[in-house]
Amino acid sequence: MAFLPERGVVELSGADRVGFLNGLVSNDVARAGPGRAVWAALLTPQGRYLVDFFIFSDGERLCLDTPRAAIPGLIQKLRRFKLRAAVEIADVSERLGVYALWGGGPPPAKDPLAAADPRLPAAGYRRLLPPGMAANATAAEYAAHRIPLGLPDGPPDLEPDKTLLLEAGFDELGGVDWQKGCYMGQELTARTKYRGLVKRRLLPVRLAAPGALPCTPVLAGEQEAGTLRSGAGDMALAMLRLDALARPLAAAGAPLTPCPPAWLKLP
Hints:
Elements: E1 2-3, E2 7-13, H1 17-22, E3 38-43, E4 49-57, E5 61-67, H2 71-82, E6 88-91, E7 97-101, E8 114-116, E9 125-129, H3 139-146, H4 186-194, E10 200-207, E11 217-220, E12 223-232, E13 235-241, E14 249-251, E15 254-258
Antiparallel strand pairs: 1-7, 2-5, 2-6, 3-4, 4-5, 7-9, 8-9, 10-13, 10-15, 11-12, 11-14, 12-13, 14-15
């Protein structure tokens, strides 16, 4: 179990909390319940990524596990859409921290704010607990677990105002509900899927020379083919153009090899 200090928690309470959030995000908020989390994203009106979160529910409130740096902007945006909805929004990161669990059994079933990572069974579990609880792993070790699985963790893996959800695996990993009603950015997301407009994908790569920094360009010959994102040891995530995947690639002067996970659907 690792405490993730770069993550925080936003709490939504009030009678309208589910309907209010459901009208804004990419997934069906009503599916979240005690012991079951939902992964979703808030988009720009143009369908670009703004912020993503895991939605937990204990039956009385929604708790959003999200990048801590994004919380002020997220709260500001949610309050802008609140209008007369009966919902209260607060940053509760000082009271609830985010923990990732993997390599063992599930957390206690009686804990409503603990759930399997909804993206992939191999990812493990997530749990909201007071900061300072005992942990036996580090955030860096969790990164070394998730990156080979191809799982993003907010920026720098996902770029606000730029990344499309389908570029980052939200379709295959269950971050989009295609049957729910409208939400902000839904039109472009649907058009991207049904017209096959995805030209690049976020996927794991193996680095011949570990340590390249996020945003380092990936080159196919002299042509830029993408950029590196988060890394751990000799593995990193990279946003790469699909038409470059079959070519020799390099970053910071050293070769890299794409390692698409089994869940990734490539053309």
